[in-house]
Heat-inducible transcription repressor HrcA (Microbispora bryophytorum), 674 residues
Amino acid sequence: MLDDRKLAVLRAIVEDYVSTNEPVGSKALVDRHNLGVSPATIRNDMAALEEQGYITQPHTSAGRVPTDKGYRLFVDRLSQIKPLSGAERRAIETFLAGAVDLDEIVMRTVRLLAQLTRQVAVVQYPSLTRSSVRHVEIVPLAERRVMLVLITNTGRVEQRVVDLPEDIADDRVANLRAVLNACLDGCGLSRVPETVADVPERLPPEDRPVAVTILSVLLETLVERHEEKIAFGGTANLAAADFSIGLRDVLEALEEQVVLIRLLGETGGLSGLTVRIGSENPYSGLRGTSIVAAGYGAGDRELARLGVLGPTRMDYPVTMGAVRAVARYVGQILAGS
Amino acid sequence: MLDDRKLAVLRAIVEDYVSTNEPVGSKALVDRHNLGVSPATIRNDMAALEEQGYITQPHTSAGRVPTDKGYRLFVDRLSQIKPLSGAERRAIETFLAGAVDLDEIVMRTVRLLAQLTRQVAVVQYPSLTRSSVRHVEIVPLAERRVMLVLITNTGRVEQRVVDLPEDIADDRVANLRAVLNACLDGCGLSRVPETVADVPERLPPEDRPVAVTILSVLLETLVERHEEKIAFGGTANLAAADFSIGLRDVLEALEEQVVLIRLLGETGGLSGLTVRIGSENPYSGLRGTSIVAAGYGAGDRELARLGVLGPTRMDYPVTMGAVRAVARYVGQILAGS
DNA sequence: ACTTGGCACTCGGGAACACAGAGTGCCAGA
DNA sequence: TCTGGCACTCTGTGTTCCCGAGTGCCAAGT
């Protein structure tokens, strides 16, 4: 049904269209790629490909353009992820190595991805829920007011100001801190609620109201921040790629954290890369845009995801290579720090 | 030289052009605003205004359009800042009040400004250098590795992982922490370097190498973060305002932190509002865009700045009102938390 | 000294039109 | 099954033309 040559033709069409941004015709095809046949033959193949929905023509008597289905086939079976050049790898390493805290790691990753792929980069902060407690700190700020600081093993720091129901002496705060750290150290965040359940009972009765208040804020922090944080950048690249339509929609989607998270979401197939092409993605404003995403994490578990977003007409092999490489390096950095 | 009627004409031109986005001619002017004179008279006035560079015509036989100089005059002398409606004020208050930490305050402020003005909003994080130390925390992470956490009175939290030259027992860390907090509590960040200079001497000799390492990282933190942090949003509004040219440039400028800071920078005249119109601003890519900015702070001192960025063709009175109001409310929130 | 109506002039933008060029589908022959 | 040829169909571009909004200027009016 789709013999080898037809597949080759499809591949050629995708490659040409991606690089020229113009519908590609039969003649141009045989000129550029040396398929050993004549334009007429190609036309027949094209007719077949169109029949089956892999390509389409914007109007009669124009060249062909890949459909989403065509890109899908290309990505799945006709292309290979293109590894980065040595220079690029080194650039990534040195650029990321300079980061000094989590915020900066994320920011730099965004820039890196945007620059490497010339698209919009999106990076999710390492998930709170899957990481574990490294330290809890309680800092007295004023009477009846403390700041609660939670440090995770991924370097993420959460802070909350807590208003207390009553005064509490500094040494009692210290005690509470010690108890908390003793039972929470290394504890997976998802297991924190059970773990702290009996903490009040282990304290002198007069400390319990304060402890309960602080604990409730702590739990709140975990729940609230379940909605993850996201950073993005490289929007200038959107303007460059003369986005046929909906630049507005894309920008809107980018500012809608919830949408973004869903787009990155759902881990996918081979080598951890997810590619969602045009109408495959669940947000109507993003018809015409594809997302290439990958999970990253320190060690074995996936902590969060990152990826890029660009026109369906993008260079998938290169983009996928860049995303995969960056995801790996970020994972290493996180594991090392 | 510029009698009252000419000024009225200029005002009318600005207002009409802002609302219609089309060059405004003499006839349209007399129709809409009831100046009590004929089109011919207006034409003479317009000629005078053009002569002096306040307006210009895109081409012969088109209406007039304000120049940057014209907008400047309009902002300085022909318009009044338009206060927000009661509903808007309440919306601001409730929206900002829900914020739970500094990050969220900033994020919400960005959204608020963007929504209120329908432009791109830019918010600078409260400056580190002008705030003061509320607490320093040293958290042991592993042997020879601690995390240094600095909490400022504006709620900003800075963290750094520090690799130590040698092992150090927890109680000695606690001692160092106590000493640091004792001398730094409430200390303005700019005075930290002098203040900590003699700390090593006050410690037992065996702790000094560690203390020196930690202090150097602390000082580094202060210096590095002198480059301030910035958040922005509402870029979708850019696409809506059919930006004549340079949407790309604008997006690039937005991602260039340094440029952004310079744009917000320099506090200005009346009521703390700075308006920079088109070519007045120091970045060539932003010809065609204006910036309305204001300082905000808890109490008397200006901690940082916020503002919006949009086409020179913007509704200045409304925008200025919104920026001023948001700046005030954010100040209140910061002071209160 | 301003203001006004009249008038000739200018120029951009849209509509109508023609045309070249790229591309297609199909068919008959190798 | 491939190929060359041929007729056909579009889009995009350039040309021309014309309308209308808007101007500048002048002479007359208040």
Q: What stands out?
A: The mean pLDDT of chain B is 88. The beta strands of chain B are 55-56, 65-66, 120-124, 133-142, 145-152, 157-163, 230-233, 273-276, 289-296, 304-311. Chain B is about 45% helix and 15% strand.
